[in-house]
What we know:
single chain, alpha/beta, Rossmann fold, four-stranded parallel sheet, 7 helices, 51% helix, 11% strand, globular
Amino acid sequence: MKKILLHVCCGVCAFASxxxxxxxxxxxxxxxxxxxxxxxxxxxxxxxxxxxxxxxIKVKNIDGKYNVFDWYKACKSLRDExxxxxxxxxCYKLRxxxxxxxxxxxxxxxxxxxxxxxxxxVSSYIFEIGKLVGNNCFLAIDFKKKxxxxxxxxxxxxxxxxRQNYCGCxxxxxxxx
Length: 177
């Protein structure tokens, strides 16, 4: 059975993604690494929700460090970019690079991300970045497909998971207001 490390942004996105990977025969562990999430209380809510899903589905979770300063350093010059633009690309790259590092250090065969489950994100953009940082270890899976987003929203309601109303960073929060 091939081992895959799944980068998880929140519990809502994690549920259907984990279920799909398991149904396709992968051994799955999750990696919660999101130094972009602001404020810290929001980060804790999403982390708790992701852990709840991991516990329910019975997969091991690895917690990454919350180093918001690395994220600001990487993305500060792009703060005026619109959602989905270069700033998001830099954010994806930062998170996927760390996911690849953890996957390599822990002998995973592959890594991927739940980011593609969102109808607000362009999966092909995420795939380009994943392949760039992860050589041949990145699996380009569009979790929106096979009704993934609907399933994740349904599971969130049934499990009473916290569901956020913005992507996560201070700039997306600012633009939402």
